[in-house]
């Protein structure tokens, strides 16, 4: 028997990841913009500020390209370069992360399953279709099409209502403390933080559970939660 009435997941970097040849994508963006390439993708990513801005992905990438251009002494239009990058990216090129299919199946055995993504349907639909996700879950909420996105409570409230469950009886699994864990807390859901690095600390956020892989989700859903610490670590046990 499951300890939760329903389970929901974040999409990007929780259930799936982009499956592009990143180097080729980077070069195609420069070619489309008519700019002589400089730098490498590995240099660009650290120059971006936090998670992508769902309202302005071009501006978000453009800020990174502006910093990269300054480091390489190049005089370019970073917004045009970012727009080219977005244009050549194929949102359908995604793949499930390890353990995602099993986690979805375990969640379906426990009760209704939902997905809540901060992106709009116009962009995220290609990922959903490529993954066959609509056949695996009972509801998908595209917070990018709502007045407020995560970490606001509204998208979580919408998902819980669609699944016909009480928010306090629902578990939300996501990789972002600032968006997924904070949003679930604000909406009264319980949260499981998908930690990518065992050395990462949850503080100052307090997820209800910490999992280091999606393989741990199945045990977390059982009534005993994988006693003995095999499945997940409760935040209080982490100090």
UniProtKB/TrEMBL annotation:
Organism: Halorubrum tropicale
Coiled coil: none
Keywords recorded for this protein, A-Z: Hydrolase, Magnesium
Keyword Lyase: no
GO biological process: small molecule metabolic process
Cofactor(s), by name: Mg(2+)
InterPro entries from the UniProt entry: HAD-like_hydrolase, HAD-like_sf, HAD-SF_hydro_IA, HAD_sf
Family indicated by similarity: Belongs to the HAD-like hydrolase superfamily.
Name of a matching Pfam family: Hydrolase
Name of the molecule in the record: Haloacid dehalogenase
Keyword Magnesium found: yes
GO molecular function: hydrolase activity
Species lineage: Archaea, Methanobacteriati, Methanobacteriota, Stenosarchaea group, Halobacteria
Source species, domain of life: Archaea
């Amino acid at each position: 028997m499951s300890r939760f009435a329903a389970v929901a997941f974040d999409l990007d970097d929780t259930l799936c990841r982009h499956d592009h040849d990143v180097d080729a994508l980077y070069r195609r963006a420069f070619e489309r913009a008519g700019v002589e390439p400089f730098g490498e993708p590995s240099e660009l990513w650290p120059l971006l500020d936090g998670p992508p801005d769902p309202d302005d992905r071009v501006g978000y990438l453009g800020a990174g390209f502006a910093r990269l251009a300054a480091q390489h002494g190049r005089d370019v239009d970073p917004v045009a370069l970012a727009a080219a990058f977005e244009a050549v990216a194929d949102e359908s090129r995604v793949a499930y992360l390890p353990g995602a299919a099993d986690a979805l199946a375990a969640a379906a055995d426990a009760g209704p399953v939902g997905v809540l993504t901060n992106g709009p349907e116009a962009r995220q639909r290609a990922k959903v279709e490529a993954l066959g996700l609509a056949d695996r879950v009972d509801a998908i909420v595209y917070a990018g099409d709502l007045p407020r996105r995560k970490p606001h409570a509204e998208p979580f409230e919408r998902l819980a209502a669609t699944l016909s469950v009480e928010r306090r009886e629902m578990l939300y699994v996501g990789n972002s403390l600032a968006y997924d864990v904070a949003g679930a807390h604000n909406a009264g859901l319980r949260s499981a933080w998908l930690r990518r690095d065992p050395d990462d600390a949850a503080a100052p956020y307090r997820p209800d559970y910490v999992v280091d892989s999606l393989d741990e989700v199945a045990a977390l859903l059982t009534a005993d939660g994988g006693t003995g610490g095999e499945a997940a670590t409760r935040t209080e046990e982490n100090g």
